[in-house]
Write a structure and sequence with these properties.
This protein is an alpha+beta fold. β2 and β3 form a beta hairpin.
Amino acid sequence: MSAAAPSSRGSSALRFGRFAAMGTVAALILIAGVWASWGTAQHVMLPKGRERGTVEVARCDEGICTGPYTPVSGGSQPRAEVRLEDSVAVEKGRTYAVVLKPGGGEAVRSGPAGVLYAWVPLGGALLLASVVVAGGLLRTRWAWVMASLGAVLLTAAFLAV
């Protein structure tokens, strides 16, 4: 009997260790996703006091598109050129609603498409963390919920952009 007791204690300690390690990994993945998303999302989701306008994309080179900025919000000044991240959704010759980051040289797409696009890193983090939650924590329901939320977010961003 005494031989079984230490074995179960050791097994419990290993289970707790696995739970703690995988929980930490999943939490770090999610924190990294929020951190990566918030850098852009804060400008789109909290536009009060920021310069808003439109950019007509004139040219795209090496991942950056540029074009003239036309203000829409009061107090904003027109600019000959602002930078907009080149993605599959940005095309030369099209006009996009944007919010300028502080400093005025870099623009971020605004509106529903901009919000969804800003949170794409979180969608990827949810998908990745769901694998850790399912495999490492053995919480398949939570993993399915996380994976579904990530897939919905990524699909919505794809359709909106």
